[in-house]
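Provenance and format

Records in this collection were gathered into a single text stream. Each protein contributes a sequence line and a token line. The two records reproduced below are adjacent in the stream.
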Amino acid sequence: MNYDFFAPRQIHFGWDRFQEVGTLAASLGTRALIISGSRSLESNGVLEELQSLLSRAGITSEHIRTISHEPEVKDVDHVTNILQHHSHGAGDFLIGIGGGSGIDLAKACSAMITNRESETVLDYLEGVGQGLQLTEEPLPLMAIPTTAGTGSEATKNAVISSYAPAFKKSLRSPEMIPDLILCDPKLACSVPPEITARTGMDAITQLLESYISSRAQPLPQALSLQGLKLAIPALPLAVEDGSSRTARENMAHAALLSGIALANSGLGMAHGVAPPLGTHCRIPHGLACAVMLPVTLRANRSVCETQYAEIARHLDPGLTLSDAEAADAFIDQIQALNDQIGIPRTLSELGVTPEQIPDLVAGSRGNSMRGNPREIPDEELTQILQGLL
């Protein structure tokens, strides 16, 4: 058995541990350049508190940018240019705080500020541009997730979008895994129910797809099982009662595990289709993954019956069904979970039209789709997507 395993260097997890941010950040440098992923972090005082806690630890800080959408090429280039004009030097480090958008932007900028063979991130993205490689170590980075979804705090890539032309591609390097993760589930208590549902299903999709991926590995599979056992019962509780400590802790832990799992094992069809749903139809990533998950499970059932049964029995050790029955019951359980938290069953409910299907199929052929446990030809994918209209 041969495999490689990538994981964050430091993970600090726990309720109200945000108060330790100054002490922890001191190990990275003396000046923090902050990139945030939600304007609510400004309005609810989290950013102000962050800078105050840093100041008490003797760390100066500057809030560079807030991003309220999934990062685009122009965002990375613009913020990298701002950082350059802040004359970064010894003692400088980045803090990415927010959901996946803010953390991905921070990760991309941490790499681009030290890799200047091209002035645009486009030339470093997979499958577009010049195919340049990241050769210099990124600026030190602390990730502080405030939603439980993407697991971006633990992955080695940043997802960057473009709408003209339409694509969503990764900037990727093992060096992009944040140096330090501070995960305080309490920070997610203010996340609205709808966003909680979407981001939570993104984490569950990541856990499932990395478990059944063609590149699945034993350590990530073990993490995925733990994450699923936490997330599947916790997500409805977090949607219903955002202040539930147990639900928020379990979802934050599951999302963190999902990031580690996908960084090592890859993903599958749901995450393959999600990028073009974002760039062509403007559907938020977590929502796209959630809608695509049940049909992805059904599409892979012929080769994943044993894995589905394994997951079902892990979730319910008393299950006495056959593998076939357990696999079907598990798929039904995921669909029921979607229904319970208000995820639509069809793409047409999200505004997708038949005319967009060819572009969605063409745009799905990225790194995630290559991890799907079986090949999904264009003709079959077309039929699958048409069946969701």
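Adjacent record:
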Amino acid sequence: MSRQIAVVTGAAGGFGAAISSALLEVGYAVAATDADAGALERLGGHLGYPEHLKTFVMDVTDAAAVEQAAELIAERMGPGITVLVNNAGIIGRSYCLAQKSIELSARVIDVNLTGAFNCTAVFSRRMAALKYGRIINIASVAGIWGAAGGAAYAASKAGLISASESWARELGPLNISVTAIAPGICKTQMLGQFIDQETAQSADEARIIKSIVPVGRWGTPEDVAEVVTFLATCKTNYLNATVIPMDGGMRVGSL
């Protein structure tokens, strides 16, 4: 493939599928990775098995597996990996008083933060050889505000934001920019672990949302994908170490 290659982790989820589709639309070949082989197969069907999409089973928490996947991507698609979207993530309710909180918290941090470390280390080396790259990390407003019942999730996303800024300093001289997106409340399967779905789908939904989100609606995976494509295709490397909150204006409140 002669196209530039974008690697998307957690590609079979709501954000990942939308991001993969959007990057294909703007001309990238997409290496869609996920730990769930069955979900990857469904992703291909959902997107219509486009010519420039290849799927790869990859567990981001396993550094050796990430290295092996990177080699396979290069073998099947070519060496031109110029975009990495660290999207793989899980939530998991982890109240500090719960008995299993420590085990669940460790898993959340392993996937959300250690996974991004593994992927950034492996794929940034390939970008360095090309003297060009765009690394885009999907964080969360929870990493800025915190989240009751989700300390591990919030901590992992706060860590990802800080890591993004640190990587931006380290990789900027190599013409590799690192940015982060911090989505607010978005309608995905993961939302159900923090938001009461009966409330979210009730007749009062519009009133509830308008009371907390100035734009008056939930966010969508497509909203996030739109910003990912902007960052991926941005020609200037001066947009670096930037964290973009995508919360519909929640942080400033509504009327």
